[in-house]
Design goal:
- This protein has one domain: Rhopdopsin 7-helix transmembrane proteins (Up-down Bundle).
- Helix 9 runs antiparallel to helix 10.
- The protein is globular.
- Strands 2-1-3 form a 3-stranded mixed β-sheet.
- The protein is an all-alpha fold.
- The protein has 11 helices and 3 strands, in the order H-E-H-H-E-H-H-H-E-H-H-H-H-H.
- Belongs to the G-protein coupled receptor 1 family.
- Keywords: Cell membrane, G-protein coupled receptor, Membrane, Olfaction, Receptor, Sensory transduction, Transducer, Transmembrane, Transmembrane helix.
- It is found in: Cell membrane; Membrane.
Length: 321
């Protein structure tokens, strides 16, 4: 009996892919380039400020700020993986991307999003301990545990994403090399293979559903317990303070999960109903809006970070003048 063909040996992979951008919105590319450049600049500046403030201020060494610092670093990686190439497509029409660069971009995008959802769960756990078990906060969230959580979150992301990228990169690409997307999104690239892409697409859907689904369940459980504890407080001022602290976390989670889940399931279930430009634009905004607004939300709603950021910017402006 003859064995099946080894596609990656009998068929050459394309040297480059061509990213279309956002199909149907070519007339708006200049405006999109300006908008995405502004959002990317805001994301870089805001997240860099968050990291700088937390790393240089000895009073911001609590677990919450540690997780926020890691989240800011992941946001920079996530935005930097896609926005520079998007802006290049929209502004100059440079749509080509090499085969290896395409799958590297895909790998970083999926890994960053998997790490981010894990960090949001860790931050929800931090708020649960801080509000529901305040007397044991420092005893539970020791530096060793925080480091272990971060290593576990990153390891989970790498272990889940690596097979996905490997499976798709080893399928045969013998037809068109035009990707109808503005970055190397998994489903868009999978449409170009000459073999059946169902296994890798199904793996992507199941894996993302398990990771995001389990994280959202635990996050929801944490906040149910938090709300029970908050409304059990006798002091209205304490209730407002606790709810205000959690409000920023809930806002960040909504920015990440709602467009992300919509993008995944529209691409899988309703791609024939929702216009292509809407699907691509939603996928683009899912990767750039959270990194842009996360530092704004935390900077405005977290008093300690807001004050330190003002001091840092004031010192910088004084030195420059």
């Amino acid at each position: 009996m003859m064995s099946g063909p080894s596609y990656n040996h009998t068929m050459e992979s394309p040297a480059t892919f061509l990213l279309v951008g956002i199909p149907g919105l070519q007339s708006s590319y200049l405006g999109l380039a300006i908008s995405f450049s502004a959002m990317y600049s805001t994301a870089l500046l805001g997240n860099t400020l968050i990291i700088t403030v937390i790393c240089t201020d000895s009073t911001l060494q609590e677990p919450m700020y540690f997780f926020l610092c890691v989240l800011a670093a992941v946001d920079i990686v996530m935005a930097s993986s896609v926005v520079p190439k998007m802006v290049s497509i929209f502004s100059s029409g440079d749509s080509s991307i090499s085969f290896n660069a395409c799958f590297t971009q895909m790998y970083f995008i999926h890994t960053a999003t998997a790490v981010e959802t894990g960090l949001l769960l860790a931050m929800a756990f931090d708020r649960y301990v801080a509000i529901c078990k305040p007397l044991h906060y420092k005893r539970i969230l020791k530096p060793k545990l925080m480091l272990g959580l971060c290593v576990t979150i990153i390891s989970r992301a790498v272990i889940s994403v690596t097979p996905l990228s490997w499976m798709l990169s080893h399928l045969p690409f013998c037809g068109s090399n035009v990707v109808f997307h503005s970055y190397c999104e998994h489903m868009a690239v999978a449409k170009l293979v000459c073999a059946d892409p169902t296994p890798t697409s199904l793996y992507s859907l199941i894996c993302s559903s398990i990771i995001v689904g389990s994280d959202t369940v635990f996050i929801a459980a944490s906040y149910i317990l938090i709300l029970r504890a908050v409304f059990g407080l006798s002091s209205k001022n304490a209730q407002r303070k606790a709810l205000s602290t959690c409000g920023s976390h809930v806002g960040v989670m909504c920015l990440f999960y709602l467009p992300g889940m919509a993008s995944i399931y529209i691409a899988w279930l309703w791609h024939d109903v929702v216009p292509m430009h809407t699907q691509v634009l939603l996928a683009d905004l899912y990767l750039i809006i959270p990194p842009t607004l996360n530092p704004v939300i935390y900077g405005i709603r977290t008093k300690q970070i807001r004050e330190r950021m003002k001091m840092l910017l004031t010192c910088f402006l004084r030195k420059g003048s």
